[in-house]
Amino acid sequence: MAGYLLKNCAAVIVNEGKGPTVQRNVDILTNGRAVQAIGEDLGQSELPVGTIAQDAAGWFVYPGLVNTHHHFFQCFVRNRADLDWTKLSVIEWLDRIYPVFSRLNEDCFYHASLTAMAELIKHGCTTAFDHQYCFPRHAGKRLIDRQFEAAERLGMRFHAGRGGNTLPKSKGSTIPDQMLETTDEFIGDCARLIDSYHDASPFSMRQVVVAPCQPVNCYRETFVQSVALARDRGVQMHTHVGEGESPVMAARHGMRTVDYLAELGFAGPDAFYAHCWELTHDELRKMAASGTGVSHCPEPVYLVGAEVTDIPAMAAFGLRVGLGCDGAASNDNSNLMHCLHSAYMLQCLAASTRLHPVPPPVDFLGYATTGGAALLGRSDIGRLAPGMAADLFAIDTRRMDYVGTRHDPLSLMAKVGIGMPTDLTMINGRIVWQKGEFAGLDEARLFAEAEAALSTVEF
Question: Tens of pLDDT along 7-19?
Fold first, then answer.
């Protein structure tokens, strides 16, 4: 693989393990999959054979963003007023939306994944975790296999969360029968996917996470066996927590979700939960003590109408925090850069109701980079420094949009927001998006294929 020399970058966000700093008017040299050097006049010395030089004047270069919670398949139910959930509880809304999800076929899952990943890449995301918990019986079991196929087509670094639901509606879940699996089916397919795709080596492009959908929609044994499999195979665990279900769990099991999962062992440095907006400070402290992480998804807050997630408390208690887009059913875009801005602005909105101060804007960049990498158990991505994966994106700031903002690249995304696609996105040392085009792909064709797949489903 060729390396690249990005020459005379206006600013590079560098992090050698002690926090982000800004280096001005420097070059970035990549060699294969890794960053080789960051500094001045790197082109003056002998470069590796095949290095391609690019003028990066005016560019702000950031580490690639890491998305830690999504539901790609939901891209096919975007912008639908008939599925608006603003007047429903989360549980009521799930009862309404799951029958729609159950109609999707295998091609829908593949093209929806392409759609979500393409939008993520355009907006600086280089690693994506997807929580794929929807397995309609007619669609078969190779849905995540097709997601890995889509990720390879685009050049995306992909962590697949193999989700599933095992509790029937007759016992209190929200899941239609045609989307149910047995615990043995779920665990068996998790094991198959780990054996087939999971790569724990440095710069891995494919990993698998054991991710039962949510405790309220699964049998206890599903989570017990998930813990056993994940710990045996050395993979991460993930589920939904604290998005309205805790009172249901308390009525059903005599304890709220956080304590329930801790009792089952589904907690610790190898586990992270999505959402957590309804959790008490005591529950957040317990999670911090166990090392359990949180994927904060800010934009669903707009639609749910519930309280704003208490990120200041999480930061004060030392919780590990990453950012996620969430699925398009509760966030109609797949733009993690936009979520970063929303996350900060929502905390500012709620600041007067908090016991702890809003973290500074730079911390929100950290949640979307190093924080996300840590949730996924990765030490090779999430920051720019020699030896790290060459995952980055660049914004040409020589535009009217950035007048008066260029003095502080660290706060730019959180405070100002970036309202356009990147000028370049590089993943694992390969440029996958530049000058409005995907490398080696025809976006018009991708669009037409996805629209055709969507048209085969009646909603």
Answer: 999 999 999 999 9
Structure token pair of residue 87: 């007047």
**Secondary structure of 397-455 in HEC code, one letter for each residue:** CCCHHHCCCCCCCCCHHHHHCCCCCCCEEEECCEEEEECCEECCCCHHHHHHHHHHHHC
Contact call for residues 192 and 142 (beta carbons, < 8 A): no
Please list, in sequence order, all residues whose beta carbon lies within 8 angstroms of the beta carbon of residue 16, skipping any fewer than 6 positions away. 383, 385
Classify residue 48: in a domain, yes or no.
Answer: yes
User: Is there a contact between 126 and 64 (Cβ–Cβ < 8 Å)?
Assistant: yes
Query: Per residue in 164-223, pLDDT tens?
Result: 999 999 999 988 899 999 999 999 999 999 999 999 999 999 999 999 999 999 999 999
Residue-wise burial string across 78-97, b where 16 or more C-beta atoms lie within 10 A, e elsewhere:
beeeeeebeebebbebbbeb
H or E element at residue 327: none
Largest CA distance in the chain: 71
Residue 452 counted as domain residue? no
The angle formed by the CA atoms of residues 272, 274 and 276, to the nearest 5 degrees, is 105
**20: domain CATH number?**
2.30.40.10
